[in-house]
Specification:
Alpha-Beta Plaits, about 170 residues, alpha+beta, 2 domains, 5-stranded antiparallel sheet, single chain, elongated, SH3 type barrels, 4 helices
């Protein structure tokens, strides 16, 4: 079995995955189809002072399929609603290389399960709560494990570093 990339309509990746699985099971072609992946990562966001983890698709509009691609299976996948085409040449799909598959699997594995912060160093934010509410400043440090950031806030004309929780700031 080899890995292929299927281009879908954005937002329809999981529906396409379910439709392909259902059709393959109905036709008893399970031996031709391996894993199907919609790679996601967990992102920490805060809004209204509340922390939430959101699943974000790494490759919107793409489904990664492991299959023994016969002409019948290829036709079934291409005719699935919301599928536009296989990635590759116009004649036939091009399988991914072992290096590409390894990179995707690394991303989908443990690394993809670790929450990532939407905050970055250098980003300008507004403080939403606490003694520095309504102040704006620039992020100088992000600590994902403790879910805190250091923000340089100008107080009386002096830049002062302040440590804040992810839930205490918002984007400008």
């Amino acid at each position: 079995m080899e890995w292929y990339i299927v281009h879908t309509l954005t937002g329809k990746e999981n529906a396409v995955k379910a439709a392909i699985q259902k059709t393959v099971e109905a036709r008893e072609w399970g031996h031709l189809l391996g894993r199907m992946l919609v790679p996601t990562e967990t992102e920490i966001q805060s809004s209204g002072g509340k922390r939430k983890e959101v699943q974000r698709k790494l490759y919107p509009g793409y489904l990664i399929i492991q299959a023994e691609l016969t002409d019948e299976l290829r036709h079934l996948i291409q005719e699935t609603p919301a599928v536009t085409h296989f990635v590759g040449s116009s004649d036939s799909p091009v399988p991914l290389t072992e290096e590409e598959v390894a990179e995707i699997m690394k991303t989908v594995g443990e690394e993809g399960r670790k929450p990532k912060a939407i905050w970055e160093e250098g980003q300008v934010v507004r403080v939403t709560e606490g003694p520095f509410a309504e102040f704006t400043g620039k992020i100088t440090e992000v600590n994902i494990e403790h879910e805190t950031v250091k923000v340089l806030i100008s107080i009386f004309g002096r830049e002062t570093p302040v440590e804040l929780d992810f839930t205490q700031i918002e984007e400008l």
